[in-house]
Amino acid sequence: MDRRATPSGQVEVRRIGKAILRSEVFQRAASFILGGLASLTYKLNRDVAQSTDAHEMLDGEWPVIFAMWHGQQLLIPYAAPRDQRFVSLVSRSADAEINARVILRAGHDVIRGSGGRVREQASSKGGVSAMIAMRDALRAGTNVVMVADISKGAPRQAGEGVVRLAKISGRPVVPMAIATSNRYVIARSWDKTTINLPFGRRCLKLGGPVYVSPDAGEAELQQARAEVTRELNRITEEAHAAVEKRA
């Protein structure tokens, strides 16, 4: 007897697997475990002297738009200053639900949307409402955290969303990177997702604020995207170099 799954059987297995992954029980359990592990990992890594002091650097700048690369965001909620309010942009996809719940458990709010493909969202109520919600959050004094590069797009290239939010809100984009000396990189993932591990050193780096004028045209927006990209790549390299140095 051929015990190999038939195509219809494979489809059924995938369907059941997706149903389990998206079930309330699984989502609650997974977010509880992942959130606990991320919090513990952050605490069990020693901060290095090269880390940026956010309060010192951003004095008079709050609130801001924190931008980071895909695959680098697991520890970000635990590095945030406790005297500031934060809201994170999370994809509307069902697969992002665990990530959203982990962020909520860390004490940050969540806005659903997608930050990169602004033109594709122009006719989408969800995309427009997310941008408006982030603008309103900034006006109310809440910092926005969002991934700069576009999911399944060009990795390590800032999309339009982050600079257009800066344009309509008047608040600067602040590039952010965090690295730990002990880590596992999922090489086959498109964004080189990093799983941070405990018992090492950590470094948080912030880049200089990038402002976008309210009347910025397409050329200025593209310049801002390039600047955010350069700063994010620079501080990511610096963060990794800092944790590799032995004290």
CATH topology: Glycerol-3-phosphate (1)-acyltransferase
- Biggest sheet details: 7 strands, mixed
Total number of helical segments? 9
Strands, count: 9
Overall morphology: globular
Strand content: 15-25%
Global structural class: alpha/beta
Task: Identify the quaternary structure here.
Answer: single chain
* N-to-C series of helices and strands: HHEHEHEHEHHEHEEEEH
Walkthrough of the structure:
By secondary structure, this protein is an alpha/beta fold. The chain has one domain: Glycerol-3-phosphate (1)-acyltransferase (3-Layer(aba) Sandwich), CATH 3.40.1130. The protein is 44% helix and 17% strand. It has 9 helices and 9 strands. It has helices spanning 7-21, 24-43, 54-57, 76-79, 97-105, 118-121, 125-139, 160-169, 218-244, and strands at residues 45-47, 65-68, 86-90, 109-112, 143-147, 173-180, 183-185, 194-196, 200-206. The strands form 2 sheets. The chain has a 7-stranded mixed β-sheet with strand order 1-9-6-2-5-3-4, with helices on both faces. Strands 7-8 form a two-stranded antiparallel sheet. Strand 3 (86-90), helix 5 (97-105) and strand 4 (109-112) form a beta-alpha-beta unit.
List the helices and strands and how they pair.
Elements: H1 7-21, H2 24-43, E1 45-47, H3 54-57, E2 65-68, H4 76-79, E3 86-90, H5 97-105, E4 109-112, H6 118-121, H7 125-139, E5 143-147, H8 160-169, E6 173-180, E7 183-185, E8 194-196, E9 200-206, H9 218-244
Helix pairs in contact: 2-5, 7-8, 8-9
